[in-house]
Design goal:
InterPro entries: NERD. There is one protein chain. The protein is α/β, with parallel strands linked by helices and about 300 residues long. The protein has two domains: about 190 residues, 3-Layer(aba) Sandwich (Trna Endonuclease, Chain: A, domain 1), CATH 3.40.1350; about 80 residues, Arc Repressor Mutant, subunit A. The strands form four sheets. It has a six-stranded mixed beta sheet with strand order 1-2-3-4-8-10. The longest helix has 24 residues. The protein binds zinc ion. The site of zinc ion has 8 residues, from loops. Zinc ion (ZN) binds next to loops.
Length: about 300
């Protein structure tokens, strides 16, 4: 059993917004950090996907204990232990001085081990509350092969890129069949997982204030209509079937405006008038039911 990882809502939203409005420098930076973090987590997922059946993997759990929320990048339930992994995708040279971490330039960064410790403590308390007696072992995974940490004390619970394979093969030889209690624990943790993170940092935006059009899935630049079948990116020249580009743009519309009704006119405006209402309507009726009378009609997802 696995709780799979999906692109965080904050990341998806910022990616949609970036092509349709100016992001501040801080928002751009936040987006880059989220992208890099997510890529790192996915890289970790690929490394652990062959661990087999005797290990339950729960990704991206957001839990709460005594009014404090904490996120767990990856949690493994094995027969004898729970493993907790905090995955970081830092790149470049860093050094450690006591409890502090610095970039080579001297700029201090948050010590990820403190975050790991905090999560571990809170997780222990949650487990205690659930009357679970498994020990917890936690590691900071520095997944990027181009990361180096000078001055690392030997006893820090860090797994560097070059150590991960050895760690995982050792772990694999120590995996034994799980029983009903392990599965119950996994279900309990999934049940108390908080779906909607309150920590998302997204700029204010309105439908009116955003750029309209169809934007390239690759480079984010505006697309133009080529003929009745294709649109083409003005930046990278890639082409996309009109139907696909509308479904994709509609996905962005729904993500950014979950409460806004889906109407032919709305989607027409959203796509910058690039595609005729007739085609948009044809695509919408394939996947949606039309409700309401002609003037105020809108679409809802087919049952
Ligand atoms: Zn492009």
């Amino acid at each position: 059993m696995v709780k799979i990882r999906s692109e965080p809502l904050e990341l998806k939203t910022l990616q949609c917004l970036r092509v349709r409005m100016e992001l501040s420098e801080q928002e751009e930076q936040n987006l880059l950090n989220l992208q890099q973090g997510y890529r790192g987590e996915c890289a970790f997922d690929r490394r652990v996907e062959n661990l087999g059946n005797h290990c339950i993997i729960l990704n991206d759990l957001l839990l709460e204990h005594s009014n404090t929320m904490f996120q767990l990048d990856s949690l493994f339930i094995t027969q004898q232990k729970i493993y907790l992994f905090e995955v970081k995708n830092y790149e470049g040279d860093y050094y450690v001085d006591g409890d502090r971490w610095y970039m080579k330039s001297g700029k201090e960064v948050k010590n990820p081990l403190l975050q790991l410790k905090r999560s571990e403590t809170l997780l222990r308390q949650v487990l205690q509350q659930l009357k679970i007696n498994l020990p917890v072992e936690s590691y900071l995974v520095m997944i990027n092969p181009h990361f180096f940490l000078y001055n690392t004390p030997i006893d820090l619970p860090i797994l560097f890129h070059s150590q991960l394979n050895r760690f995982l093969s050792k772990l694999k030889t120590n995996l034994f069949p799980l029983n009903k209690n392990h599965k119950t624990l996994a279900e309990l943790l999934r049940a108390i997982h908080i779906e909607k993170s309150p920590y998302v940092r997204i700029p204010d935006y309105t439908f009116e204030g955003l750029r309209k059009g169809i934007f390239c899935n690759g480079c984010g630049r505006p697309m133009e209509k080529v003929n009745r079948v294709f649109v083409r990116c003005r930046g990278c020249n890639c082409e996309e079937v009109i139907d696909t580009s509308i479904v994709r743009s509609l996905g962005e519309y729904k993500l950014l405006f979950p409460d806004r009704k889906i109407t032919t006119n709305g989607v027409y405006d959203w796509c910058g008038g690039l595609i005729s209402r007739y085609i948009i309507r044809r695509i919408l009726v394939k996947e949606y039911d039309l409700v309401g009378n002609s003037k105020n009609s809108y679409f809802i997802k087919k049952e």
